[in-house]
From TrEMBL:
It is found in: Membrane. GO terms for biological process: fatty acid elongation, monounsaturated fatty acid; fatty acid elongation, polyunsaturated fatty acid; fatty acid elongation, saturated fatty acid; sphingolipid biosynthetic process; very long-chain fatty acid biosynthetic process. The chain crosses the membrane at residues 32-52, 73-91, 145-163, 192-213, 233-252. Keywords: Fatty acid biosynthesis, Fatty acid metabolism, Lipid biosynthesis, Lipid metabolism, Membrane, Transferase, Transmembrane, Transmembrane helix. This is Elongation of very long chain fatty acids protein. The keyword Transferase applies. Pfam families: ELO (PF01151). It catalyses: a very-long-chain acyl-CoA + malonyl-CoA + H(+) = a very-long-chain 3-oxoacyl-CoA + CO2 + CoA. The lineage of its organism: Eukaryota, Metazoa, Spiralia, Gnathifera, Rotifera. It is an enzyme of class 2 (transferase). Its EC number is 2.3.1.199. One of its GO terms (cellular component) is endoplasmic reticulum membrane. Belongs to the ELO family. It is a multi-pass membrane protein.
Length: 272
C-alpha cells in the first residue's frame, strides 16, 4: 500500500526509502551505504582532478560559456521551485506557525519527491566546479570551502532527511539562498547585495544546525535517534561547523577587511 508519509531512514547499516507514489521501498546495506555516502565525495574528487580538466581541453570557449549560463539558470529555477514548494506546504498546513509540527511532522509524498531531488541536486552542483575549472581556475584558486562543500553536501543531506524539521529547513532555507546565488551566477546581482548571500548562508547553516540539535528532545519519534544512530547524528556536527567557519572567514576577508574590492568570483562561487 502506498504511504501518504513515505518512509525515509538513512543508516549506514540499512538505508530505507519508500519511493513516493509507488509501492516500492529501496533497501541498501553495506558496502553500498558507504559507497553512495562517503564514496560520493571521493568520486567528486576524481571528477575535479581528472575528468573536468580533461574535458576542458575538448570544449570550445563558446560551449563552456553556454553550458555555464544554462547550468546556473536551471539551478536558479530549480532552487526557486524547491523553496516556494516548501513555503507553500508550511503555509498550507500552518506549520510555519506551529513549531512542534514543523519539527516533527513527516512530509507528504509530493514534497518528498522534491526533497529527494533536492538531495540529488547536490551532485548536479558538482558542475559548478567544472565551470570554474573550464574558466582556467586552479583548485587552489577555487579554494578549500568550495571543494569541501561540494564533496560533503550530498552526505549531509542524506543525514538531514532523517529528521522532518531538518528536511524542511534544508529545502526552505538552502533553497532560498540558492535561488539568490544561482540568479547571481546566471544574471548578476547588484554589487551591494552580494554580501547578503554570504550572510544568509551563515544564518541558514546556524539555523538548520539548531533544528537538527533540538529535534530529538522535541519529537518523541526521534528521541532515541542519537543513541541508536550516533554516527549519523554526529556527522552534521562535524561537517557544518567547517562550512560556517570558512563562510565567516570569507565574509570578513571580502566585505570587512577590503570592502572596496570584491575579489574573484571564485571564492564566492559556491557555497551552500
Amino acid at each position: 500500500m502506498m504511504s501518504t508519509k513515505p518512509l525515509y531512514s538513512f543508516r549506514f547499516e540499512h538505508f530505507q526509502m519508500e519511493i513516493p507514489y509507488t509501492t516500492y521501498t529501496l533497501h541498501l546495506y553495506p558496502p553500498w551505504t558507504y559507497i553512495i555516502s562517503y564514496g560520493s565525495g571521493l568520486f567528486y574528487m576524481f571528477l575535479i582532478l581528472i575528468i573536468f580538466p580533461f574535458l576542458s581541453s575538448k570544449l570550445s570557449t563558446q560551449a563552456k560559456n553556454s553550458f555555464a549560463k544554462i547550468h546556473h539558470t536551471l539551478l536558479f529555477v530549480y532552487s526557486f521551485i524547491s523553496f516556494i514548494s516548501t513555503l507553500y506546504y508550511l503555509l498550507d498546513t500552518n506549520e510555519i506557525r506551529n513549531w512542534s509540527k514543523f519539527l516533527c511532522s513527516p512530509i507528504p509524498s509530493w514534497l518528498r519527491l522534491i526533497s529527494i531531488t533536492f538531495t540529488l541536486s547536490k551532485i548536479w552542483e558538482w558542475l559548478d566546479t567544472a565551470i570554474l575549472i573550464w574558466k582556467g581556475y586552479s583548485l587552489s584558486k577555487i579554494g578549500f570551502l568550495h571543494i569541501y562543500h561540494h564533496a560533503t553536501t550530498f552526505l549531509l543531506f542524506l543525514c538531514a532527511m532523517n529528521f522532518p524539521g531538518a528536511e524542511k529547513s534544508g529545502m526552505l532555507l538552502n533553497g532560498f539562498v540558492h535561488t539568490l546565488m544561482y540568479y547571481h551566477f546566471a544574471f548578476r546581482l547588484p554589487k551591494f547585495l552580494r554580501p547578503l548571500i554570504t550572510t544568509l548562508q551563515i544564518v541558514q547553516l546556524l539555523t538548520v544546525t539548531y533544528v537538527w540539535h533540538i529535534v530529538p528532545s522535541s519529537c518523541p519519534a526521534d528521541q532515541h535517534f542519537p543513541k541508536k544512530n550516533f554516527v549519523e547524528f554526529l556527522l552534521p556536527y562535524l561537517i557544518v561547523p567547517v562550512y560556517s567557519l570558512f563562510f565567516f572567514k570569507f565574509f570578513i576577508e571580502q566585505y570587512l577587511l577590503s570592502p572596496s574590492t570584491v575579489k574573484t568570483e571564485s571564492s564566492s562561487n559556491k557555497k551552500e
